[in-house]
């Protein structure tokens, strides 16, 4: 994983609450055995019209949302399935951070493991960001704040290990492998007890 | 110190304790695998030149992308597309190469991953169980700590048999009283999610307890735990008891002989101690639950079918009602139905099929309604056919299929058309879940069958009296 230290972008807003993983990437596309190239399927049934053209009513299709890599989403983003295809699709689409007052557990976990910042804000800040699409934000992962255009700052908390991994591009599997001896000791202890 | 059931299972699996800087390393006893969320993890292992740490703790099956119509005369299975077929052969290849036990096409035990784990006795009290699938929470019915993980974590478990986890908080849901006649586990869990909301369990592991839970069969407990994730919870568990032990005894992977007795003695300790505390508690009165269905586009939008649909409180709810064509102020009961689906890891076990067959026996699926009955596993299919349930379904005009996830996730070609209303015993009513534009109403098997007969969303209690032959 590449280190993620700072993300600078205008925001795009999807204000709906409970945007589930089936909306992020519909299940019928999960027959893939790859993780690359899912961006074109991201939000598929929302984003395109029946004839395959862009749906003008989909907020991310609006010209001012183009190129935004910070998504402000309604409460409980990413609920539903454990499919990691959801963060893979978002990243490939160009979204590098999701800001929300509440993010579904498995999605948040999956997102952070792929370098997609999933940041939980308090409700008042979240409401303000939802109401102000298109503002320029700068997210500082090391110092855990979001810089606003007027110089103000929104503080946030990341789970310390996830933050460490993001900042240093740490491979979590590698970290687990370093504990091989402890794992073996655990297995031996359990087998003896049985 | 007094501990909750969750804490007992958690503590027994800590390989390295958590600190402020690092999550705990938790050992995983059983890793379930299916074709959709595993290929990228196997590829990762291959790229890194790694092996599986404990292939003996893995169990794989084919369920999501698999057709539910039998193979043709030429032996070809009617896959939805070439990609689905390739995904299945990829898992077959991966299991061969890495030495994983696969319950594939040639197995008598193939089926939905969360149906076969318990059936084989692989799911046992006190275990940690994971799968790249959010409905892994099903296995919590046995007092196991079972939760869904993403594909990166599937790779972690494959290589190290461990996961990095922060300890979740605990939520007790006490279900007191008795469920009324004709009201079942599915109604209860829809009611609970309606009460606490689709995010009511986020960050928590739920323990379901109380008289109504203790009175339930294992199948019913699985239905309840299955939908924990629909309230946002990572896992849901129920303390194992004599019902659990009787259900598991003699199953292929369950301990045998004296090992069985020793195991039961260990498992009896898996209950929340008196005086242990939860981070949050909720009380539900079972006697108040009525046949419950969903009216919107997430499982929290659930209501007794005879109660008026609440008015939308915001634009998103308004959109959900519009999508569903549900009318605020009118009950769901009576809404016209196009398709009925009985199946999925929520409700595809023998007792679910019996419940649906009980309503359908001697009756016909209404004109213009399509009904699909998909058993959860080959074992369920065999048992159902032995009892003649398949004949009840086909005589009523329903389709009797080969096991798989089918219309629960609509990846295999079993799907509804845009605008069609599906009464479904599955677990998710998200937009497009059962086909683009399809409108899903979640319900119990009895409600699904009654609705098939009526051609409208119907109260199963009106069909519970035997019809004259
Ligand atoms: S039946 Fe549905 S919910 Fe269950 S494992 Fe299959 S797709 Fe997932």
From TrEMBL, chain A:
GO MF annotation terms: 3-isopropylmalate dehydratase activity
Matches recorded under InterPro entries: 3-IsopropMal_deHydase_ssu, Aconitase/3IPM_dehydase_swvl, AconitaseA/IPMdHydase_ssu_swvl, IPMI_Swivel, LeuD
Top-level class of the enzyme under EC nomenclature: lyase
Catalytic activity: (2R,3S)-3-isopropylmalate = (2S)-2-isopropylmalate
Pathway connected to this protein: Amino-acid biosynthesis; L-leucine biosynthesis; L-leucine from 3-methyl-2-oxobutanoate: step 2/4
Keyword rRNA processing: no
Any Pfam family the entry gives: Aconitase_C
Start and end residues of each Aconitase A/isopropylmalate dehydratase small subunit swivel domain: 10-123
Superkingdom: Bacteria
Known function: Catalyzes the isomerization between 2-isopropylmalate and 3-isopropylmalate, via the formation of 2-isopropylmaleate.
Record note on quaternary structure: Heterodimer of LeuC and LeuD.
NCBIfam families: leuD, PRK01641.1
Protein name, UniProt field: 3-isopropylmalate dehydratase small subunit
Name of the gene encoding the protein in the UniProt record: leuD
TrEMBL record, chain B:
Similarity-based family: Belongs to the aconitase/IPM isomerase family. LeuC type 1 subfamily.
Gene designation per UniProt: leuC
Family matches, as InterPro entries: 3-IsopropMal_deHydase_lsu, Acnase/IPM_dHydase_lsu_aba_1/3, Acoase/IPM_deHydtase_lsu_aba, Aconitase_4Fe-4S_BS, Aconitase_4Fe-4S_dom, IPM_dehydratase_rel_enz, IPMI_cat
UniProt GO MF annotations: 3-isopropylmalate dehydratase activity; 4 iron, 4 sulfur cluster binding; metal ion binding
Pathway: Amino-acid biosynthesis; L-leucine biosynthesis; L-leucine from 3-methyl-2-oxobutanoate: step 2/4
Residues the record lists as binding [4Fe-4S] cluster: 345, 405, 408
Record note on quaternary structure: Heterodimer of LeuC and LeuD.
Protein name: 3-isopropylmalate dehydratase large subunit
Domain Aconitase/3-isopropylmalate dehydratase large subunit alpha/beta/alpha: 7-455
CDD domains recorded: IPMI
Keyword presence, Iron-sulfur: yes
Free-text cofactor note: Binds 1 [4Fe-4S] cluster per subunit.
Cofactor: [4Fe-4S] cluster
EC number of this enzyme: 4.2.1.33
Keywords: 4Fe-4S, Amino-acid biosynthesis, Branched-chain amino acid biosynthesis, Iron, Iron-sulfur, Leucine biosynthesis, Lyase, Metal-binding
Region (Disordered): 62-83
Tree of life domain: Bacteria
Catalytic activity: (2R,3S)-3-isopropylmalate = (2S)-2-isopropylmalate
Pfam entry (one): Aconitase
Role of this protein: Catalyzes the isomerization between 2-isopropylmalate and 3-isopropylmalate, via the formation of 2-isopropylmaleate.
PROSITE patterns: ACONITASE_1, ACONITASE_2
A single BP term in Gene Ontology: L-leucine biosynthetic process
């Amino acid at each position: 994983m590449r280190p993620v230290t700072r993300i600078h972008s205008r925001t795009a807003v999807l204000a709906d609450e409970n945007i589930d993983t089936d909306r992020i990437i519909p299940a019928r596309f999960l027959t893939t055995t790859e993780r690359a190239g899912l961006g074109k399927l991201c939000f598929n049934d929302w984003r395109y019209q029946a004839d395959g053209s862009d749906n003008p009513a989909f907020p991310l299709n609006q010209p001012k949302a183009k190129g935004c890599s910070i998504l402000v989403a309604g409460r409980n983003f990413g609920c539903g399935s454990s499919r990691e295809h959801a963060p893979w699709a978002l990243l490939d689409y160009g979204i590098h951070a999701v800001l929300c007052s509440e993010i579904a557990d498995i999605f948040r976990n999956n997102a952070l493991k792929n370098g997609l910042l999933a940041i939980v804000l308090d409700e008042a800040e979240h409401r303000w960001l939802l109401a102000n699409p298109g503002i320029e934000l700068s997210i500082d992962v090391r110092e855990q704040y979001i810089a606003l255009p007027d110089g103000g700052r929104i503080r946030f908390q990341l789970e310390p290990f996830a933050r460490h991994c993001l900042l240093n591009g740490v491979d979590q599997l590698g970290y687990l492998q370093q504990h091989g001896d402890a794992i073996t000791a655990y297995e031996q202890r359990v087998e003896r007890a049985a | 110190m007094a501990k909750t059931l969750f804490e007992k299972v958690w503590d027994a699996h800590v390989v390295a304790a958590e600190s402020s800087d690092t999550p705990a390393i938790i050992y995983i006893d059983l890793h379930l695998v299916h074709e959709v969320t595993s290929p990228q993890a196997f590829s990762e292992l291959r790229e890194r030149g790694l092996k599986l740490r404990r292939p003996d703790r893995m169990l794989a099956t084919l369920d999501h992308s698999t057709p539910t119509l039998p193979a043709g005369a030429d032996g070809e299975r009617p896959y939805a597309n070439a990609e689905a077929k390739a995904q299945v052969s990829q898992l077959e290849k991966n299991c061969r190469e890495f030495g994983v036990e696969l319950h594939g096409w040639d197995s008598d035990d193939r089926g939905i991953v969360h149906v076969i784990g318990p059936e084989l006795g692989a799911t046992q009290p006190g275990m940690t169980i994971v799968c790249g699938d959010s409905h892994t929470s099903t296995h919590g019915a046995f007092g196991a700590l079972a939760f869904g993980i993403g594909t990166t974590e599937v790779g972690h478990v494959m290589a190290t048999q461990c996961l990095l986890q922060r300890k979740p908080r605990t939520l007790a849901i006490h279900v007191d009283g008795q469920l009324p006649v004709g009201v079942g586990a599915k109604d209860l869990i829809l009611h609970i999610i309606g009460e606490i909301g689709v995010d009511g369990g986020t960050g928590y592991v739920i323990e379901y307890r109380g008289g109504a839970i203790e009175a339930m069969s294992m199948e019913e407990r699985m239905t309840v735990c299955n939908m924990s994730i629909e309230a946002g919870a990572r896992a849901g568990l129920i303390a194992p008891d004599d019902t659990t032990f009787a259900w598991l005894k003699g199953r292929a992977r369950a301990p045998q002989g004296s090992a069985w007795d020793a195991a039961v003695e260990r498992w009896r300790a898996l209950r929340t101690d008196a005086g242990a505390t939860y981070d949050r508690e909720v009380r539900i009165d079972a006697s108040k639950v009525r046949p419950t269905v969903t009216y919107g586009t997430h499982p929290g939008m659930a209501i007794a079918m005879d109660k008026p649909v609440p008015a939308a409180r915001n634009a998103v709810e308004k959109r959900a009602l519009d999508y569903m064509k549900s009318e605020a102020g009118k009950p769901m009961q009576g809404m016209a139905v196009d398709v009925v689906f009985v199946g999925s890891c929520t409700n595809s076990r023998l007792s679910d099929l019996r419940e649906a067959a009980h309503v359908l026996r001697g009756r016909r699926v209404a004109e213009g309604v399509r009904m699909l009955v998909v058993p959860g596993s080959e074992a369920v299919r065999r048992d159902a056919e032995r009892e003649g349930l398949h004949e009840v379904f086909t005589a009523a005009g329903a389709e009797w299929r080969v096991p798989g996830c089918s219309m629960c996730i609509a990846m295999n070609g079993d799907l509804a058309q845009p605008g069609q209303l599906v009464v479904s015993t599955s677990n998710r009513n998200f937009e497009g879940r059962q086909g683009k534009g399809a409108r899903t109403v979640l319900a119990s098997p009895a409600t699904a069958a009654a609705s098939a007969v009526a051609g409208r969303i119907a109260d199963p209690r009106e069909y519970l009296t035997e019809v004259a032959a």
